[in-house]
Amino acid sequence: MRVPQCPTVCFLVTVAAAQLSVSVVNNLPGNTPTYAYVTAQSRDHQIVLLQSDHTWYYPHVETIPSVPLDELASIAIPLAAGGARTTITIPSEFTSGRIWCSSGTLAFYVVLNNNGEAVLVEPSVTNATDPNHAVDWGFAELSYTKEAGLFVNLSYVDFVGLALGISLESQDGRIQEVSGFPATAMADLCDRLQRQARSSGYPWDQLCVTDSDGRIRRVLSPSSQIRRNPSAFHDYYSAYVDEVWSTYSQRFLTVNPQTLASNITCIVHGDTLRCSGDDRGFRKPTAADIFTCDSGPFAIDATDNDAHVAVVPRLCAAFQRATLLLAGGDLQPSLDPSFYYTASPNNFYSHFVHELELDGKGYAFPYDDVGPLGADQSGVIASQTPRLLTLTVGGRSQ
């Protein structure tokens, strides 16, 4: 089996039956102890965390919420330093998985929901009192089942932390790659956001989280900043939304659902965008609705029909990228990525994240996988027959 070169930290994953064998190569600079964590849901929808003996730990409902799980189980897997490998075996299939890497230890907790079920409390980037606030960390998301195979992606929907990159080799030799960030990404991202704040008057610079020494710990997405400060960006999209509603009160907006047989036509009546086959339409979104894609008119209810569910991601993505008033923007999605973020206002966080990614791929907002055929920016890679997954942590040299 050919093993790709690993300039930083690599998770090398091979699939055998229902197991994943993970080889971790730690080339992060410095002497701070580095750890890996694996969190997931089992096939019967229970929370599981991987222990250092390669067995799943199932948090019990009796667990005291204030006690971190690493006091109850050995879930922090030390990574050998200096380029040596640490082998991890994930014993069975799983969904909603994450492989975390941290410079220092991370604290995970479990609490009970209203149904008495255990709920995992992961490290938070929006809570300044979170015990993980001063820790550098990042993760890759993945799921592995016999039916679907292995799916892996990088996500910067909530924040940019430790730089990551992934490469997946299938049994037939096909290789899919998402290169991730260079090592200087956070500093470069903050520099661009600070300049954008000065030119626009909006708090893009406040997305950069620093410690007491002024060192950048992470860069938050606008949706994460809004969770910290609900008034942030409150009128950012107001004039643009008004212009979109005025434009599409005079002509049709056409949405290609890509999953249904025919296109959906939409037009504004009064203050609501009405779409063919949709049972409730869309009122004007706020900046918070647009950045999160899951509140106000973009919140999807269990009773929503297929037409409404298809329009939500495509309309929200168009607002993020400011393509609705461009020539050709009356068909969504149709414009290729060269047109994204060419007008204002747009999601400058997402804009700059894609500019700094070595190949422009990786989720920067929840529906970043929306696009015309062949123009995916989300960075999802998948294989029914995976041979080797390489995840680099710490940044690649350009």
TrEMBL record:
Domain of life assignment: Eukaryota
GH64 domain location: 1-395
Keywords: Signal
Pfam family name, one: Glyco_hydro_64
Entry-linked Gene3D superfamilies: Beta-1,3-glucanase, C-terminal domain (3.30.920.50), Thaumatin (2.60.110.10)
N-terminal signal peptide: 1-18
UniProt KW Signal keyword: yes
Protein name listed in UniProt: Glucan endo-1,3-beta-glucosidase
Signal listed as a keyword: yes
Organism listed in the record: Talaromyces pinophilus
InterPro entries attached to this UniProt entry: Glyco_hydro_64, Glyco_hydro_64_fam, Glyco_hydro_64_N_2, Osmotin/thaumatin-like_sf
